[in-house]
Amino acid sequence: MNEKPIVGITMGDPAGNGPEITVKALAHEELYDRCCPIVVGDAKMIEQAARFVGRPDIRIHRCQKVEDALFAPGTIDVLHLELIPDAASFSIGKVSAEGGNAAFQCVKKVIELALAGEVDATCTNALNKEAMNMALEQDHGKHSDGYTHFDGHTEIYAAYTNTKKYTMMLAHHDLRVVHVSTHVSLREACERVKKARVLEVIEIADKACRDMGIENPRVAVAGLNPHCGENGLFGTEELEEIGPAIKEAKEKGINAIGPIPPDSVFSEALGGWYDIVVCMYHDQGHIPLKTVGFVYDREAQSWKAVEGVNVTLGLPIIRTSVDHGTGFALAGKGTSNELSLVNAIDYAVCMAKGRK
C-alpha cells in the first residue's frame, strides 16, 4: 500500500455535482490498484451523494486523520469536516455562502495535508467562485487568514503555498496546454504577454513534461495575433516579446518551437508534433481542450464524455482538478459524468510517482 500514492480529493461545492462524481469515481474498484484515495469534505454530503447515484451499498468511512483510512474498494474514506449542519435542508443546485465556505475549507485542508506530507497529491472538484467569494467576504478573513477574495483554485493554492511563479495546465490525454494568463480580461491578457512571463511559462511547461517522464519535451509556443502578426502587420508581440522568449529558452537547452499560428498549433499538437503548447491567454487554451474533451450526444441528449484535467504547475505540491464547473443544474440527479475526475486522479498519481 505504501507504494501507491495517497491522493486527497476535495468534495467541491456541496451544492454542485462534486460529491456525486466523487462517489462514482471511487466506485471504480480498479482505481484502488493505482492509488489510495481519501476525500476531504463533509461525510454527510458524500453519504447523500451515494444515494443520489444509486450506490447506497458503498460504505462511507469517516476519518479524523489520514492514517485512519482503510483504502479499500467498496469503501470511501472521508476526512470529515463538519461543514454542513443539516444535509437534508441544505439547498442543492443553488449558489450560497454556506456551500462556498464548505468548498473553500476543503481546499484549505487538503493543501495543509499535502504540505505536511500526509498526502502525496491533491485533486479538486469544482467550486463556485461567486459562492466562495460571498463566503470570504462575509467571513471578513476570520477563517481564511485574512484573505477576502480569490479568483479560483489556482490562486488559493498559490497563496497558501507561498508560490509566486505558477501557471495552469489543461490536459486531454496527450494534448496539453499551459497559459501565460488565465482569469483576466482579454484586454489585460494581451498586456500580460511579456518576454519574462512567456519564458517563465515555457520553463514551467518543460519541467512539467519532464516530471511526467518525457525526456526531451517539444514545447510549442502559440502566437497571440492572427498569423503570428505577419511580421508586425497585425501586431508586434511575436517580434518583441514571444520570439525573444523562445530564443532565450532555446539557449537554456529547452526545445521551444515557435511562435506558431494559434489556428494551426492545436491540430499539429493533436497529431503528435508537440508534447505541450504554451498559450497566451485563457480561452486560447481552453477552447481546443474542451472541444475535444467535452462530447455531447445529440441523439441521447446527454453528455457522452466530459474529459479533461486541470493541473496547477509551479507549486511545491501536486494539484490536479476536473476541467468543468460545479454542474448545479445536474446536482442531485445522479447523472453527472465522473470521467474528468477519474482522469484528474490518474494525472495526480502519474505526477506523484514522477516526483518520487
From TrEMBL:
Give the multimer and partner information.
Homodimer.
The protein's superkingdom reads Bacteria
List the NCBIfam families. Answer: pdxA
Instruction: Supply the alphabetized keyword list.
Output: Metal-binding, NAD, Oxidoreductase
Instruction: Please state what the protein is called.
Output: 4-hydroxythreonine-4-phosphate dehydrogenase PdxA
Record-linked InterPro entries = PdxA_fam
Q: Cofactor(s) for this protein? A: a divalent metal cation
Family affiliation:
Belongs to the PdxA family. PdxA2 subfamily.
